[in-house]
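Lecture notes, unit on binding sites. The following record was shown on slide 14. It pairs a sequence with adenosine-5'-triphosphate.
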Amino acid sequence: MVRHNRLFWKIFFWFWLSMVSVMVSLTFALSVLVDPADILPERRALFRELETVGRVLERLPGDRFEALDTLTSWHASRGFRNTLYVFDGAGRPLGVREPPGSLRDFFRETRDATEYRMAVRDGQVLLGPYRLEREGAEYLAYLVKSKPTHMLHKLWRLISHEPSVFLVLLAVSGALCFILTAYLVAPIRELRAAVRRINEGQLDTAVSAAVVSRRDEIGQLGQDFNRMAGRLNRLVSAQQRLLRDVSHELRSPLTRMSIALGLARRKGAGGAEGEHERIEQEISRLDGLIGQILQWSRLNDGGAGAGAGTLELSGLLAQLVDDADFEARAAGKRVRLTQSETCRIDAAEPVLASALENIVRNGIRHAPAAGEVEVRQRVAGSRAVIEVRDCGPGVPEEHLASIFEPFFRIPEPSVSAPAPNGSGLGLAIAKRAVEMCGGTVRAENAAPGLRVVVMLPLSAKASAP
Ligand SMILES: Nc1ncnc2c1ncn2[C@@H]1O[C@H](COP(=O)(O)OP(=O)(O)OP(=O)(O)O)[C@@H](O)[C@H]1O
Ligand SMILES: [Mg+2]
């Protein structure tokens, strides 16, 4: 148990130890270094009071001064809250009130002093002596204040005189440290449990809102953890889906090949031309598919080198459209670059070129017979916008976002049935490549046809040659 809670006890004991040692050293320093009399805030007021009282005493009519029994009540009636004591030259107190023992000691220490002294003894503030002369005799007046008011001083007295108070402080600080430690360690424990769950394969794990909503580093750690777990979960499920789809995609041509092979065997060496052709077709289809899968996985590894170097976009497009147009002519269609503005963007040329090629090829494939694919490029703000539009059947609205998912093809009955040889990876590869260049891609129906819009951030080094 203790082993598992090591961090808790470490934090707890260190906090507590430092709290206790601060308390002890503060008390010690106070008792050794600070004379309580020096830190009393009422110091000045007491001095003034003694002066005033002393002067009044000097001028008091003789008989009243002799009747010092009433001195104390006289002093009190003047609105002074402290007690006045007067000693005669021989050290005898005047009046009926007995001076406390501490004042007697203080009197002995200070009877020859030439200026005022102040001391704190037995919880009382002692001040004096004020020397006054009456009819040739010398008297010494002292003031005693019963309770010093300074907080620090009270604390010091409490700690140094009452060990039980120290024990209470110890317990209170211990409780505070316990709460603080629990506050710090609880979320760490929760994070640890979450890490363990992920380790056990529960990828949909997240830490609770109580941790995430904290406004401190632990809260930030919780948020980062949830983001990481979410991404991990998405990545792993995407990989699993991809693996399933890839296996499925690879199996179909293989099945067709083995059927063709069986037929060819039965026909013998002579009459199997058709089957051989079929097998050759399927092999090249498999080859293409594997090539695309490799390209897709390279892009997802982030190792495709996107963002390496800058390129001039209109030049790239001109070359690309030229090649695509050459291909399209074979099917009686055209690809045209209708507008293009010079601009530079940060991207690796092969990655971006193949992404755009995939989009343009789709256009050619889906354009009607003798139709045209229009490629337009302009600069809008800090972005380059490339639009590829064909006049084909377009894509049903509900599939507009899905066509960018790997292996997605429009279901059969639709007007824009998939190309017989399409793998459904083309747009997924294009989207990933564009995103790696910091851009976005979306598709919209342009009635007629489909418009694919690619936006890419302009290079920060746009003016460079
Ligand atoms: N211009 C378009 N017009 C109509 N439908 C389109 C267009 N472009 C794509 N699609 C639809 O989106 C699906 C996904 O396109 P994608 O390019 O990813 O795959 P593909 O063209 O079938 O195969 P590949 O590009 O890998 O050879 C296509 O199967 C097609 O149904
Ligand atoms: Mg395609």
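Take-home: The pocket of adenosine-5'-triphosphate (ligand 1) is lined by residues 292, 358, 362-363, 366, 390, 392-395, 403, 408-410, 416, 418-419, 422-428, 450 (CB under 6 Å).
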